[in-house]
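Input chain follows. Return structure tokens only.
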Amino acid sequence: MKTMFSFGSISPKQLAEMCDTTTIYGNTASVSVCGICTDSREADADTVFCALRGERVDGHDYIETACERGCRVILCEEYREPIAAAGAVAIVVKDCENALAKLAFQYMETLQAKSIAVTGSVGKTTTKDMIASVLSVRYEAFKTKGNFNSVIGMPLSMLEIPKACEYSVLEMGMSGFGEIERLSLIAQPDIAVITTIGTSHMEMLGSRENICRAKLEVLCGLKQDGILLLNGDEPLLANVNGKSYKTLYISTERENAHFFAKNIRVEADCTRFDIAYNGCLTEDLCVRVVGRHNVYSALFAFAVGVLSGMTAEEIREGLLRFAPENLRQNIVSFAGMTFMEDCYNASPESMQAAIDVLDAYHKLKGGRTVAVLGDMLELGEESSALHRQVGAHLAKKSVDRLITLGKGGSFIAVGAMQCGMKADRIDNFPYYEDVIEEIGAHLVSTLQKGDAVLFKASRAVGIERLIDYLQKNMKA
């Protein structure tokens, strides 16, 4: 992971000060850097190597590699011989991860940009990107790239915020308690968004209530008189209030919500809706992604736009500009079929939403529908039940064939059969690591022109490999 400083080059002494340390070894004369990385293979003369300690890998073991690549400044927790041998500078801190957080915080303190924090179990990246798309119509807006949303990724991404930035939209992810708190304290958001409370990270946190507690840590850094935007259709978020901030709700179900979407129409290549707010009604808004679940992201983006002083027409333009990132919902035509590629990640909530999109597409276009679904990870003891739940949801929809991958995928197949889907419409591949070509060949023989095919699984499954196989082995 590598990022270049938007503030240009900096001396080791300045960097050490921002990391809250005075412990520096080596000759700092005529040395400056303009970026930082956590992978020694990306190190060079202009880039600091940050020797992070992880559960499996200790970055200190790669200091020599960084020095061999010409790295002149090492951010580390202990001074090691390869640094001296290379004549490099060592900035020594107690904890490299905390040093990155302090570095990002100190840089944010120099900016005038307002900060918007986005967290939640599902839809974080789409919501972040949609908010940034709206704000960029009027303002200089920055967003964390990709899913740089961890306690390491978000601070690194923040170092790229331009000096002229007026709004920074920061995605915050987590795997356990305390992580959102740390990120919120770095970002000091003016507006905080919680998209929803799902079942991702059940393995670590054990219950949806605990997941909700972890997400609400975003309040720890929320500025005095800041605004908390919540999904009003999530019962666990229904009564969140505080004296130091204002709570506003978005909804597709509750007309008394502050921002209420109605008249939702899912079309073949977009989703349209109206939004009622502050006694006003803005009609026929459109996002170029398919599915009712995307309206939640649009509601958050609309709300942020209104709170930032934008007109309804400016917000409309920003929503139209939005386009999903690679591996997220992408609908393409190939070999007479429609591929719905949603390979970035998967949770029970997002899996069911993708199935709903497939079902809606069938109702609009007709033709046969095929779902290629794989494991959803990090669900803990509830994993088998949650996979069966997805299968049960699918069985109620207009899905003609189901192909499942992995152990979790097997439970999806079981859930579908338990709720009435016939076994001869289901193909299950409990192992997929070394048999992608076998599964791909099966799909080549199974798929037909006119089919709409959904591909979805957790990122680690690599289900996009099947799409690559099909594109190479089917006639366009």
